[in-house]
Amino acid sequence: MSGLDLANARLATPPREPLARLTRPVLVDLAERLERRGWDLVADWFWGEAVLLQGILRVAAAREVEPPPRVLGWLEERRRAGIAIEHVNHVAPATAALMVAPSDPVWLSLADDLEHWLAGTVTRAPNGAIEHWPGGVWADTVYMAGLFLARLGVQAGRPELLAECGRQLLAHAEVLQDPGTGLYAHGSHGGVTIPCRWGRANAWCALASVEFLELAAASGLAERGQVEAVRDVLGRQLRALTGLQPEHGVWSVLVDDQPETRGILETSAAAGIGAAMLRASVVVPDLDAAVTEAGWRAVRGALAYVDPDGALTRTSAGTVLQLVPFGYSVIRDDLPQLWGQGLALKAVAAALEHLP
């Protein structure tokens, strides 16, 4: 332990008790509060807004109600104002547009333009993984760009784009997934994978894998071998996370409990991972029942942190790649975040879909 700074881990706030029981009325109330608070945070066409809008749409689908008109209204307003595409994360809101207006030629045309921008502008690692920044592969990208490609591929009848999402999932796994444990690192820097198993990185990869498999099953457009390969990397990841989950359900900010971050809990990751675990039970046929049980623990644990005004507390701020574990112990988590609201909504939606 020589040279480690354990101060923040020792001062970490104790975990809350998980919610004792999730019923449909409880979940609907949580969803309405989370959505209402989320709209207070919306600002621009970027990745946080994308995560929130996708969460809102998932809940509407799970409740079997029409999508809130405000979603499409906001997207239309931003489109008319002009969209500056300067980073791979800027394509993410178009995924929500394709979800809420799947056959609208205006959105399909814009999405096509964004796909051409991705293909011609972003840099790639030697194995083809889209880089978050030149020289760096981050787990975030499979969710922000991968899901966009998959959704556009299905909506536009372009199976090559769904296949590209699958390739991105597998290329990112090649760079970021630990072959021994199945856990994902946050990212690589200069071609070197930094072995920090960040919770939200694992949430992004798990959710992107699940949604790829759902779209593949619904559309019949994916190749069997690619589907099986994605199932394999997802299954290994979720089994590993199950084995490391604390009894209260919420993993530390680094899921393998490095000494400098042990007990510093991060709720958005638990919400996203829990949602992925519940949904994976449908698309990964041989998944252990223990993974589904872990998903319920994660969802009940994460949703216990929704405060009365609807904010998911203890959500870490936007986090750049840290080169040592200690870096993740000092990321602020005292403010509500769009991605926390969105991932909590995905947890609510998954729970609604899988209530006994």
The radius of gyration over CA amounts to 19 Å
**Strand ordering within the main sheet:** 1-2
Structural class: mainly alpha
Query: Which stretches of 5+ consecutive residues score pLDDT under 50?
Result: none
CATH class group? Mainly Alpha
Strand fraction equals under 5%
Helical content (DSSP H or I, runs of 4+): 55-70%
Total DSSP helices: 13
- Total beta strand runs: 2
The run of helices and strands is HHHHHHHHEEHHHHH
**Assembly state (oligomeric):** single chain
Mean pLDDT: 97
Shape: globular
What is the architecture at the second tier of CATH?
Answer: Alpha/alpha barrel
Can you give a write-up of this model?
This protein has 356 residues and is mainly alpha-helical. It has a single domain (18-354), classed as Alpha/alpha barrel (Glycosyltransferase). 56% of the residues lie in helices and 1% in strands. It has helices spanning 7-10, 24-39, 47-63, 69-81, 93-100, 105-121, 140-155, 159-176, 199-219, 224-244, 267-283, 289-303, 338-354, and strands at 188-189, 192-193. It has a two-stranded antiparallel ribbon with strand order 1-2. Strand 1 and strand 2 (192-193) form a beta hairpin. Helix 7 (140-155) packs parallel to helix 9 (199-219), helix 8 (159-176) runs parallel beside helix 10 (224-244) and helix 12 (289-303) packs across helix 13. It is globular. The protein starts with 6 loop residues before the first helix and ends with a helix. 53% of the residues are buried.
